Amino acid sequence: xxxxxxxxxFRKVFLASALAVGLFLIPNGVQSATxxxxxxxWAANQESDLAGYRVYHGTTSGIYGSPQNVGIxxxxxxxxxxxxxxxxxxxxxxxxxxxxxxxSPEVFKQILxxxxxxxxxxxxxxxxxxxxxxxxPTPNSDTPPSPEFPIFVNFQPSSxxxxxxFIKDDGKVFDSTIxxxxxxxxSVSERNANVDQTLDTFVHTSNDTPVTWNYTxxxxxxxxxxxxxxxxxxxxxxxxxVEGMPLATQIKTIQGEYFTIVEYxxxxxxxxxxxxxxxxxxxxxxxxxxIINSTxxxxxxxxxxxxxxxxxxxxxxxxxxxxxxVHPRNLEQQKxxxxxxxxxxxxxxxxxxxxxxxxxxxxxxxxxxxxxxxxxxxxxxxxxxxxxxxxxLVKIEQSMAKHADEPAVVxxxxxxxxxxxxxxxEIQGS
Length: 430
Prior knowledge:
- The chain is of the alpha+beta class.
- The protein has 3 domains: about 1-130, Immunoglobulin-like (Sandwich), CATH 2.60.40.10; about 135-325, Jelly Rolls (Sandwich), CATH 2.60.120.430; about 335-430.
- It is about 25% helix and about 30% strand.
- The chain has 4 helices and 24 strands.
- The chain has helices spanning about 195-200, 300-310, 330-400, 405-430, and strands at about 15-20, 25, 30-35, 40-45, 50-60, 70, 75-80, 85-95, 105-110, 125, 150-155, 165-170, 180, 185-190, 200-205, 210-215, 220-230, 235-240, 245-255, 255-270, 270-275, 285, 290-295, 320.
- It has a 6-stranded mixed sheet, covered by helices on one side. It has a 5-stranded antiparallel sheet with strand order 2-1-4-7-10, with no helix packed on it.
- Strand 1 (about 15-20) and strand 2 form a beta hairpin.
- Helix 3 (about 330-400) runs antiparallel to helix 4 (about 405-430).
């Protein structure tokens, strides 16, 4: 796809905005309604390198906040729009190389206040592929309390061991009592293949079904570190964006390889940090763990990542290999846990070795049986040949006795006899 805005075929993006009753907004017309939601829909692009769409929203024409990456979906719904204001929308497509099209023609909707409900002042965009995907936090104008930083989040099954200093996220939907969660239930896994729990567990989604994780935070700038990889299998291509900004696009990882993002600055403007996984057509995106910091404290982040990877990270790089982690605090407890994990891994390895040995013995037995069959056939063939030679020698002796008075015939028969005796000795000697 060309990045030239004149030649870019992404200009074919068409945007229409539909009211809840099914009417379509006219791009240059004025519509108003007491409903505080707006549904956007546009025609799908046909380019082979299409990667997805970004939806823009603002309350001033031509001025928008951070875009929402909706993957390859062609419909999107904004809910809880601020009342008594006109809301403006636009959409742009982007390709696998990161090129973004010109924005579509702007559409807008005026939201009026309703007499029976108190509208929520700010907006949280919500995908509308299915009704039960609208499980996202509803931010408000009240500033949430500031948590203690840095925040360490490990994505793992509910029953798995929680790493020291981390909180767990087990793929459940957003819970306002804890302040974080997903827009839909998301799958989590544990491999029991890496001694470091933060690298052994992860959350994952199919790229054609994007999911969004939300964490309630006061507005401001935060620094995000993240690790993506699988200790047992190759994964990807990984697609991940934070607050609408792509941080991982078509990143592939092999077995035991981890893609690491170190302290990427993001701005939160709606009291809600949003991280979206997925958005491509094929493959799986996963995340092992996440670090959120309120200040660019690279040394502290590097220390945590170093404990996981066993190496000194200085920039956002790929890291490979099985590692181990011993936390400086509660050393004896950590040592016991580590030994327990090592024992589980060793038991799993021995199980695989035992299965491999059974298969090897079966293969050897089959080969030996085949060899014995060949030997038996060869022995049978040799016995037949010996019997044939011995019969020929008997006939020669009979002929020699019959022609005893014919020296020439006897001499000829003797020659044949010697040849057969030589052959007989060779066979019996082998």
